[in-house]
Amino acid sequence: VRALGFDMDHTLALYKKRPIEELAFTETVRKLMSKSGYPAALSRIAYDPEGCVRGLIVDKERGNTLKLDKYNYVAVAYHGTQPMTSGEIRRQYGEDVVRFDPNKHHSVDTLFSVPEVYLYCKLVDLIDRKIVADKSYGQAFIDVRACIDEAHRDESIKRKVRERPDKFIDEDPNLALTLHKFRVSGKKLFLLTNSDLTYVGLLLGFLLNGKLPQYATWKDYFDVVIVEAGKPGFYKRTEP
């Protein structure tokens, strides 16, 4: 192995789980109310950090969150935040395996997905209670996705992180030394992130600047730095 590459968010820059998830949740709720016409009742929803985990599948059309077993049968299911009985699971999914369809399903496979899926589950509850009366389960999922994407894109989340990096970023005391050891053992290091240079400079400056005398700034730890990469499309594009 001659070269080692790193992402930044949730990799070199480890976010403190509860603060960053609550921030993403709160900013998404604010946008749902201000831009997508959701009622003020959303502001009373409290974020539960234990309400969702990675490894689940969301059935967007039915408002269900599924935990599949190793054979892709539904082992546990929730409708909104309410557990489904084995009878309800059989009625909706029968005895068949769940075949993942990106048009119908969403995989909870990143830390970014956790707060948005929990919010979606709470919206399903509000739709069932007629508090949100004019949205289908599928539309609610689309709205949550659009609003959380916008919160990441328009600086709503990043602005708060920039103001208080110590509140949201977990300082790993071994990070600088680990990167240094890779370099002195002959590895080329690169950074490949979707974040912009200003944000990268603030977070990695917070984590790496002044940590070791051999490195004037965070940039000196890397042979190549690529920002605003546009992953996952980055891996499929052909331009240099």
Topology overview:
Layout: E1 3-6, E2 14-15, H1 17-35, E3 56-59, E4 64-68, E5 74-79, E6 82-83, H2 86-93, E7 105-108, H3 113-128, H4 137-153, H5 156-163, H6 165-168, E8 169-170, H7 175-184, E9 188-192, H8 197-208, E10 224-226
Parallel strand pairs: 1-9, 9-10
Antiparallel strand pairs: 2-8, 3-4, 3-7, 4-5, 5-6
Helix pairs in contact: 1-3, 1-4, 1-5, 3-4
Q: Would you write up a description of this structure?
A:
The protein has helices spanning 17-35, 86-93, 113-128, 137-153, 156-163, 165-168, 175-184, 197-208; strands spanning 3-6, 14-15, 56-59, 64-68, 74-79, 82-83, 105-108, 169-170, 188-192, 224-226. The chain is an alpha+beta fold and 240 residues long. Helix 1 packs across helix 3 (113-128), helix 1 (17-35) runs antiparallel to helix 5 (156-163) and helix 3 runs antiparallel to helix 4 (137-153). The longest helix is centred in the first third of the chain and has 19 residues, at 17-35. It is globular and about 65 Å long. The two termini are 23 Å apart. The model has no long low-confidence stretch (mean pLDDT 94).
